[in-house]
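From the shared-data thread, chain only:
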Amino acid sequence: MRDPRPHVGEPLALDLLNTRWMSADGPQDLLADVVGLRTWLLANGLEDRCEADEESRKALIETREAILQALQAGSVDGVNEVLEHGRIRRLLTATGPTEAVEVAQPQWLAGWLAAADLLRLLAEAPDRIKQCAHPHCILWFHDTSKNGARRWHSMATCGNRAKAARHYAATRD
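Structure, as tokens:
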């Protein structure tokens, strides 16, 4: 299945949030079925590490909701519960130090990785995690602009819609 989402390529935690979006047909959810989960895993290079099954889909939906609650409401409990499912194990190997992700229940691997990525984003630049400013858009993005002033997930779609609406309103007055 081709990835139908209008915005892809964000860091893992935000890409997970972007499995829900608004279209002309109304709300869409890539994780509505296992086929969509498989598409998301493939888009993020996780198809060889994570199972595309119903248990993994449910765990990923729970993770998505936890990340959303952390970003919108400051509720950290859900993300911490997801992180309880795994850990980073530090090892010394013949080639030097390394780290390995260990998750006791395989269905939690993708969600754990997304939650861990959220922690990375929050540690590096929490002010660069943004939701699109267009009132009808629910997509998220990591603002990589030089001055951190980006407002829309895409200037080509939401940014242009906002500009057109402002222009239309100005010409009506």
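The longest strand covers residues 86-93.
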